[in-house]
Amino acid sequence: MNEIGTKPYLLRALYEWCVDNGYTPHVAVKVDSRTQVPSEYVKNGEITLNVAPSAVHKLQMGNEQIEFSARFAGVARQISVPITNVYAIYARETGHGMTFDVDAPKPGTQAVAEAAPAAPKEPPAALPAPADSATTVPPHKPGGGKPKPQLRRVK
Fold first, then answer.
1. Does 152 have pLDDT greater than 80?
2. For residues 70 and 12, is the Cβ–Cβ distance under 8 A?
3. What domains are defined for the chain?
4. Model pTM greater than 0.70?
5. What is the DSSP string of 108-135?
6. What backbone torsions phi and psi does residue 88 show, to the nearest 5 degrees?
7. Which of the pair, 23 or 138, is modelled with greater confidence?
8. 95-105: average pLDDT
9. Are 38 and 77 in contact (CB under 8 A)?
10. Which terminus of the chain has fewer CB atoms gathered within 10 Å of its CB, N or C?
């Protein structure tokens, strides 16, 4: 029997934490042939998705896939993302969240995603990191649009 990794549980827990605190949860995803997302929104092989309850319909965060429907430019789309392709989940407003390794599986083996806390270069000036927070993904500042996590692998 294969043991289920911790990643889907951590994703669900951080999603729930974001929602309970009134934050907007976002997931950052590496896009490949197994990822069903609108290709016109993919940049550099990645996409960041707002998965807040107000932005999605019928969200299912399983152990293998994240699935939901959402509107993009007014058009309803079905989204399906393998858990192994999610490399970050964070609160848009604070940048607090967690990053994950998304190494490609070696032939004949199953990929193992280890959780790696995001290490900020410096915490956001207006929002000091809480004492119990082990992870922070600083918000993206240039251009003012949606924040994009700045990732640094911690080993």
1. no
2. no
3. 7-116 (2.30.30.220)
4. no
5. TS---PPEE----SS--SSSPPPTT---
6. -165, 150
7. 23
8. 83
9. yes
10. N
